[in-house]
Specification:
The chain is mostly helical. Among the domains are: 66 residues, 434 Repressor (Amino-terminal Domain); 41 residues, no CATH class. 55% of the residues lie in helices and 6% in strands. It has a two-stranded antiparallel ribbon. Helix 2 packs across helix 3. About 4% of the residues have low confidence.
Length: 166
């Protein structure tokens, strides 16, 4: 059931979590500051347009939490909950599973090592270079040591998406 009676508390969480003032949030959502004030006071209920603007500005928020009040609040917490809340596994098994799963960076590092080995083999045996079919490779940037990953966005075929911040 839709729970908009407690929406002011959820809006306050957005302020605190994203370290915004009411006026900064109003500016970011492109709404009037009085709208934020009325929502916080409980005078008005949020419109569908307001919730859509909130979801667009903060995609890590869960729609189910904003409208229904269902925990967890953030999409990242849903992923963590799926990994860590299996009751049949012991805590140690969970930690081992998490530690053993390769990250995106590990996979990229493994691919780079494989590419370096291929290049070494090509230098040793130049005749084989002509017979080997080249595999698609990740683009290489000369200044990659100065670049830092800030966000990964997964877009699914059904139009939904998830955002992961570093």
């Amino acid at each position: 059931m839709i729970d908009l009676d407690n929406f002011p508390e959820r809006l306050e969480f957005v302020f605190n979590h994203f370290e915004l003032s009411a006026s900064a949030l109003a500016d970011r959502l492109e709404v009037q500051r009085s709208s934020i004030s009325h929502l916080l006071a409980g005078r008005n209920k949020p419109s569908l347009e307001f919730i859509a603007k909130l979801m667009e500005a903060f995609p890590e928020l869960r729609f189910e939490w904003l409208v229904y009040g269902q925990e967890p609040k953030l999409k990242n917490a849903v992923v963590e909950q799926k990994i860590y809340t299996k009751e049949t596994e012991s805590v140690k098994a969970k930690e081992e599973l998490y530690d053993q799963s390769p990250s995106l960076f590990d996979q990229m590092e493994d691919q780079n090592i494989q590419e370096e080995k291929k290049e070494e083999k090509k230098e040793e045996e130049p005749d084989k270079e002509k017979t080997l079919a080249e595999e698609p490779q990740m683009p290489q940037h000369s200044d990659s040591s100065t670049k830092v990953l800030s966000r990964i966005i997964l877009i699914y075929a059904d139009g939904s998406f998830e955002t992961f911040k570093n």
